[in-house]
Amino acid sequence: MKTTATLSHLLGQPLTVITGYVDLLSTSTREDDTREKLSIIKGQLELINRYMTDLRNIKEYKTIEFAGVTLLDIGSTPTKEDD
Question: What is the overall mean pLDDT for the chain?
Answer without folding.
Answer: 86
